[in-house]
Amino acid sequence: MRIDVVSIFPTIFDALEVSLLGKARQTGLLDVRVHDLRDYTHDRHRTVDDTPYGGGAGMVMKPEPWGLALDDIAQDAAEPPVIVFPSPAGERFTQKIARELSHEDHLVFGCGRYEGIDERVFDYAAGLGRVRLLSLGDYVLNGGEVAVMAMVEAIGRLIPGVVGNPESLVEESHEDGLLEYPSFTKPASWRGRDVPPVLLSGNHGAVATWRREQQIERTRERRPDLLPD
Ligand code: 6GU
Q1: What pTM value is reported for the model?
Q2: In the chain, N or C: fewer CB atoms in 10 Å?
Q3: Cα-only R_g, the chain
Q4: Closest Cα partner for 148 from 74, 98, 99?
């Protein structure tokens, strides 16, 4: 999969060089290209923002650098990419969307800062690819960079070969609509706390039943919104 990221803080994405995603880049499973939006400006100050029409607080990202950056990325793409703009005003990013996006050949992430990007950029981008505005949740970050890091990790780990043991992708939170069951390792007793005896019983059926109950119980306690009525 090819991933292009446009940002005014490209070094934030240096973190993608480590761990499983870093390995996936080395082996060629992931082709991540990070672009500095300021490289697409032409003035001495490399200006990317300006005051909002109609007044109001803060600054808005100017459309021209975004147009040039998106043109540059789309120009050497074989097929129209999915173009994601992280935004607290977007559709909620979920495991389902992560899975959908993990099947794409080419993703482009446009990281906004300040009060956002000139609205015409989204319309222009829709002529180059399939545009999605995605939000991590109901809180506000200073910019899209941290959200894109989260999305790239959630999507990247679903690409076959990125996570060494594919079974570890199956039994985790949100894959079956429930939170994951609790895990334990040795020692069987630690600081007065014992591992639930069923896990030491060797009875695989009993273990499976217990884990399912734990999933439902935890989901009821922590995330009742995930359960059907
Ligand atoms: Cl995707 N972007 C920003 N700036 N803030 C957020 C977010 C995204 N998701 C939650 N808060």
Answers
A1: 0.95
A2: C
A3: 22
A4: 98
